[in-house]
Write a structure and sequence with these properties.
With about 170 residues, the protein is an alpha+beta fold. About 45% of the residues lie in helices and about 15% in strands. The protein has a 3-stranded antiparallel β-sheet.
C-alpha cells in the first residue's frame, strides 16, 4: 500500500510552511506525540505506521525518524504494535491512553485563576538510578521541575498525580 500526501495547493501556504520549518524544525518525537495526542488518540488511538509516515512527511520528518520515535514510544510503554499483513498497526496501550488523557486535560484545561502559593514536592530518596530516571520523566510530563538530584517540585493544583505515578512505578513508599 502506498500512501501519498498532497502538498498545500496555495503557493503562498507552501512558501510559508517551508519558511516556518526552516526557521524552527520540529523535533520528531515531540511532533509525533503532539499528532498522536491531538489527532489520533481522540479517534481510537491507532494508526498504521505507513499512514503516520505519510502524515508527517510534509513536515520534514523522514521515515527513519518516525520509525525510531515510534519504536521508542513502544519501548517506553506508550504504544503497542500489532502486525497486519506486512505492516504494523500501532495502538495506544492502556497506560499510554491514560497519559495522553492526562496531558490533554493539562494542556487544554482552563487556566487556574488563582494559585494559593502551595507546592507539591517529591523526594526520591533511596531509589535506584533507573527508577529515578523513570520517575523524573513521569514527573516532567506532569509539570514538575528538578530542584536538586532526586527532588522535584511544581505549583500544587489538585488533584495530585503523585499517587498514580507512584503506583505505576511501584514506588508506593
Amino acid at each position: 500500500m502506498r500512501t501519498s500526501v498532497r502538498p498545500a495547493a496555495n503557493p503562498h501556504v507552501r512558501r510559508w510552511i517551508r519558511r516556518e520549518l526552516a526557521a524552527a524544525p520540529p523535533r520528531a518525537s515531540s511532533l509525533i506525540i503532539t499528532v498522536w495526542g491531538d489527532a489520533i488518540a481522540p479517534h481510537g488511538g491507532a494508526v498504521m505506521l505507513a499512514g503516520l509516515i505519510a502524515l508527517l512527511a510534509p513536515l520534514c520528518i523522514n521515515e527513519r525518524l518516525v520509525r525510531t520515535s515510534v519504536f521508542r514510544l513502544a519501548r517506553e510503554g506508550w504504544l503497542a504494535a500489532k502486525p497486519v499483513g506486512r505492516q504494523s498497526l500501532y495502538r495506544l496501550t492502556r497506560n499510554g491512553a491514560s497519559r495522553f488523557e492526562l496531558a490533554y486535560r493539562r494542556i487544554y484545561a482552563p487556566a487556574v485563576e488563582r494559585w494559593d502559593e502551595s507546592w507539591e514536592i517529591v523526594i526520591a530518596d533511596g531509589s535506584s538510578a533507573g527508577t529515578r530516571r523513570r520517575l523524573q520523566q513521569e514527573l516532567g510530563w506532569e509539570g514538575f521541575g528538578t530542584l536538586a538530584p532526586g527532588v522535584y517540585a511544581r505549583p500544587a493544583h489538585p488533584p495530585s498525580t503523585i499517587p498514580r505515578i507512584a503506583t505505576a512505578l511501584d514506588l508506593a513508599d
